[in-house]
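Title: Prediction job returns without error message
Component: structure pipeline
Severity: low
Priority: P3
Assignee: unassigned

Description:
Job completed but the reporter wants confirmation the result is attached to the right record. Sequence as submitted:
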Amino acid sequence: MRPNFQRPDVTELVRGLLIKWKTILVVIFSVAIITAAISLFLPNQYKSTANLMPVQNKSFGFGMLDNTAVGSLAGSLLGGSAIKDQMDRFYVLLKSYTVKKKVIDKFDLIKEYDTSNSKTPLLDAMNELDENTRLEGHDEGNFTIDVWDNSPELAQKMADFYVHLLNQFNTEISVKQAHEYREVIQKRYQKSVHDLDSLVQANAKFQKQYNVYDLPDQLQDYMTLMGSLVTQKIETEIKLDLLNKSINKTSGVYQNTHNELEAITAKIDSIKKSGDKQTISVSLDNLPKVYKRYFYLQMGLTVEKDIQKYLVPMYEQAKLEEAKAIPVVSIIDAPVVPTKKDRPHRSLIVISAFFSAFIICCAYFTGRNIYYHNKGYFKYLLHSDEI
């Protein structure tokens, strides 16, 4: 017959712990004393802190373009990122293999951390360096680098070296980005210069061919001239009709008027066919085609001039950005040589050991009490497992 599990009463469990209170006290105090003794052998570690503020690198040249889409684009491409983005970059740079390797080599941390005899001395040194380094971005906008070491002087030097590497690597990256950006702007600027030069030459050829310099004004003059000639023709025709009714066609006055009408008509026909050299050398039949060509030439020139109006300052500023090197951070509090140890926190270690031993002892005697009250049940389970 299978025995039933008897759930012990809480009062009974507490009574069982009180019976063993002396043993529990002996154990937890023994553990606390041993932990305290061991903690005395733990080396003191000193913390040095660098308190930094990311520099908002706002290029003065692009300040002129801040109200334009081009200015916004240029500013973002040349490092106008938010402070949070800069802090993310700090994490990536300072946690990189290259930076940690430089710190280890600079201060011979393989020897300092005593990892030379391990199978992977560099990797073990990096892991210990990670444990002794804390990088933290704060809501207030500052960024701190905390470094712990047994030597206060070494902790200060390592924190200071981190700041140096942060500025160095970020400057190299920024200069590289500026160089790539300058090359992009330069290629576009050179293309714009070539396109503008081609348009200028095409426009000069067009002007020479058609005697067109300012087509709207020239067309107005052209139409004024045509209007004047047509008016003269109409007046002459009326005069000739009147003379035809009053005098003989062989008379000198009639012949002069007739010749005048023929001259005016010939002039109008000539202008319609080939234009007027003083206004525009274009016939009326070809005028739509010429005006279309003129329109696209002027539009192209206007567009290219507007493009260069933006490209020239961007190109000049890109060259300045490539040439300069601005630190990525401002040092609010430089790392100093600490005078007081920061860890280990021996009191916290002893208190943690004290309460851990207390919990383990209570759990042990509680479990033991439950077992004795259900010994038959556990033996049955053990026996059934064996079967």
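Comment from assignee: result matches the submitted record. Confidence is low (pLDDT under 50) at residues 58-80.
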